[in-house]
Design goal:
heterodimer, A: mainly alpha, 7 helices, 59% helix, B: mainly alpha, two-stranded antiparallel ribbon, 78% helix, 2% strand
Chain lengths: 208, 204
């Protein structure tokens, strides 16, 4: 005999249940109790029992009111606000046992409240973080020693006279009358001097 | 609201300190600029002297070659070709603002004028010298040398006039010798001035 028999009405109610039927009823009653208490159901169940438990769960869900009582909703909100306001005990849960039970059952609601509380806590910390960062930056700017002035390039900002085109008077000096026509010799001297200056300039990396 | 005010005040203070710090850094980095006047390059005739460059070296090398070419031509007694080679120096394009250009060209004129003078072409020699003196932009030993050559040309003119025994020629010779003396004096004056300037530069 199965519970799902179509002719269940044909059973004679006046007949006492057999021991086997009694044991089956007790076992099913235990399962229903576990379901109502939100306890863990056994992993292994018979197909009939599984079917009966599913049916009982559906019936329970249909009969139950999902909305939390206003008292408990207020308690949840009060608890979240209290935790957000208390910085010192930020990590400590202050849930009352009564509320904790509901929070446990409504984990999603608690998570949302936790997130908003955490966000509010962060928002309170942001100004302090910005102020600390600004103060640190100001200290760094104020205390840092100015970098040593880069040594000015020797060329071309500080050209010595030998690197410049200039009158040849200091190089040639006074021209004796006897050598008035020896321009070729003087030009050789000028050219050698200017070439030396130009080579030195190039070796120093000057481009102009 | 209090936190917001604290943040604002802190940021303002931080910005002020940072600006002050930045200003200090800038002033310290500007320090060497104040000393730059000690390394200011000297100027010639109110302009900065340009750096030596390839253009100037090429022009100098070209002038040098023309002088050496003239040396060889003179050794072969080709005075006309030597004169032409030296004249080429006067047409060389030197970089603008290169003081060497004037020195080299004045010296080339001096050599050219001496050669012309030796040839007896005193008129052209004097023209070469006078053109050079007129073109000079500053007093230099090369300008003084050109005045010396000018004196030599006047001296040669006077010597040539000595062959003529006429009174007119004698007067012209006397005038030429006076001009020669004036030219030598001018040369001496320029040389003395430059020597003095150079001495002052070397003994600060």
């Amino acid at each position: 005999m199965t519970i799902h028999d179509d002719n269940i009405d044909d059973l004679a109610p006046e007949q006492p249940a057999s021991d086997e039927e009694q044991a089956t009823a007790e076992s099913f009653a235990d399962l229903v109790d576990s379901l109502l208490m939100d306890d863990r159901l056994p992993d292994i169940m018979g197909a009939e029992q599984r079917e009966l438990i599913d049916t009982a769960a559906i019936m329970r869900a249909n009969l139950r009111d999902h909305a939390l009582p206003p008292v408990r909703v207020n308690a949840l909100i009060d608890d979240a606000l209290a935790r957000a306001a208390d910085d010192a005990n930020a990590g400590v849960s202050r849930r009352s046992p009564e509320v904790a039970n509901d929070v446990g059952r409504r984990a999603d609601v608690a998570d949302v409240i936790d997130l908003s509380a955490r966000r509010r806590r962060l928002q309170r910390l942001i100004p302090w973080g910005v102020a600390t960062f600004a103060a640190a930056a100001a200290l760094i700017f104020a205390l840092r020693t100015s970098p040593p002035a880069e040594s000015p390039p020797t060329v071309p900002d500080q050209l010595s006279m030998m690197h410049r085109s200039r009158p040849a008077d200091p190089l040639i000096g006074q021209i004796p009358r006897a050598e008035a026509g020896r321009a070729s010799t003087r030009l050789d001297t000028i050219y050698s001097d200017r070439m030396a200056g130009y080579r030195d300039l190039r070796l120093r990396g000057a481009t102009r | 609201m209090t936190l917001f005010r604290i943040t604002i005040v802190t940021c303002v203070l931080a910005t002020s300190i940072a600006v002050l710090g930045g200003c200090n850094g800038e002033s310290s980095s500007n320090q060497p600029d104040d000393d730059r006047s000690t390394t200011t390059l000297p100027e010639a005739n109110g302009r900065n002297l340009p750096a030596l460059g390839e253009e100037l070296l090429l022009a100098l090398a070209q002038a040098k070659n023309f002088h050496h070419k003239a040396d060889v031509q003179l050794k072969q007694a080709n005075i006309g070709e030597a004169l032409a080679s030296i004249r080429e120096i006067l047409t060389i394009a030197f970089p603008e603002d290169a003081p060497e250009a004037e020195d080299v060209k004045l010296d080339a004129r001096a050599r050219l004028a001496k050669l012309l003078n030796v040839q007896g072409n005193t008129t052209e020699a004097m023209s070469v010298v006078d053109t050079g003196i007129a073109s000079a932009t500053r007093r230099s030993f090369f300008l003084a040398n050109l005045h010396t050559v000018r004196g030599e040309i006047y001296e040669a003119m006077a010597n040539m006039l000595d062959d003529d025994e006429s009174d007119e020629a004698r007067d012209k010779a006397r005038a030429a010798r006076r001009s020669a003396i004036e030219a030598f004096d001018k040369s001496i004056e320029i040389n003395a001035e430059l020597q003095k300037a150079l001495m002052n530069e070397r003994t600060p």
